[in-house]
Design a protein that fits this description.
alpha+beta, 18 strands
Length: about 525
Amino acid sequence: MKVRVLFVLSVLSLLVSWTTSDPVLTGFLQCLPKQPQSAYPIFEAIYTHENTSFQSVLLGYIRNRRYSTLATPKPLAIVTALHESHVQATVICAKQHGLQIRSRSGGHDYEGLSYVSDVPFIILDMFNLRSIDIDVADESAWVQTGATIGELYYEIANKSKVHGFPAGACPTVGIGGHFSGGGYGPMMRKYGLTVDNIEDAKLVNVNGTILDRNSMGEDLFWAIRGGGGASFGVILSWKIRLLPVPANVTVFNVKRTWEQDALNVIYKWQYVAPKLLDEIFIRAITRLKNSTEGKKTVEVSFVGLFLGQRDKLVPLMNESFPELGLQLRDCFEMSWVESTLFWADQPIGTPINFLLNRPQGPPNFFKSKSDYVKEPIPKQGIESIWQMMLKMDKVLMQWNPYGGRMSMIPEWETPFPHRDGNLFLIQYVTYWVEEGDETLKQHLGFVRKLYEGMTLYVSKSPREAFQNYRDLDIGANRQNHTEFETAKVYGSKYFKGNFDRLVRVKVMVDPYNFFKNEQSIPPR
């Protein structure tokens, strides 16, 4: 007890230098070490503007340069939690002192909502909480939310050559937001989404209490598996189900330009890709490139994964999708974990420890939007969109096929509702490296015009959207004020009929709306 009292006194003495800057921040900082949960020293996890490392810690997990400018609002402090008790203390003290929390695991929120706010706020950085405990015998794993997808893949492969998990293609994405938003990857058609394979979770609620599935109840456990954890608490960890994969899988990347009949191939893709064997996933990425004559053209990359060997894949593809012209020389066999590097756009043969890399800071500016397609787009529609793209710069469309397991799961089973009846998900992206307001305006105009041009061909009433491709254009509650009608607009696009149940859960667990952001679930 004496040691603890001395520790608290030493921390409070170190906080004296901060007491003259902001009384609210001072109160928050002095509150942290007083919490009974803080058995582990929290002082070394705190960064304020007076700390020389503040800027590097802030920028380290910002993945979009649109939110790393001088004009971007900055947090009063960053708590880089070193223990679960630090999360509890941060929630309790932020609530007591009227500060908003933004929790960040990998920093990939497309609109920066995990690290930007218009009101005084604290970033709760989870990147230190990254432990991964694999239980091959139980075919399960506990994963803390600060871990990355790549780290999870690496640890699974370290323990088993015949298990995998259906998460995303970008290895640096944090587990926290990816899982809670309904993350998907190239095994989606076989095994569904991340949230379809979660067995338990630990969460810090608005009172600073750690809950698991049993103590939180099935309603809250339902809500955080696709409804976004940031509306309901701070997710600490997930228990996931490991799934069987063959010792060898097959990947390919077949490219066709407009001049090489790409239009006919992608038109047929719409009919074929959602109906292939569940073990086959073929993403179609449409982007601009310069032709051999130096003219701008459209190129489509058909990037595929088959949970099996190429000798079986090629005959299947030639029978069902001859337009692609897949050949044995296009196909590469490798282990499942090696295929995750291929999907991360790394050269074949890249060592798997690449999955452990954590690059710091934002590489470029970007803006993304999303759509769902329920009926094949006619050729003239695709052609008109391509003509529009040719007048733009640094834009792409990514088409991801549904069907398979995705069509078998009811849309109400998790908050993620985009299931049967969808042919594919579209992601629109524009990206750039040049700074300046005019460049920003130009590229935002590109992606918004592309999105508008697709209106005739995508879902309607509502025009559905994927929450993990965050898009504030579809509706947002600004200036810390939550309007239910505004939330219902973006909520119906992300969650369809599940929005109402998410609101009921919010009322039960956070009635005063402590956990909120511009697109959070309101308590009505």
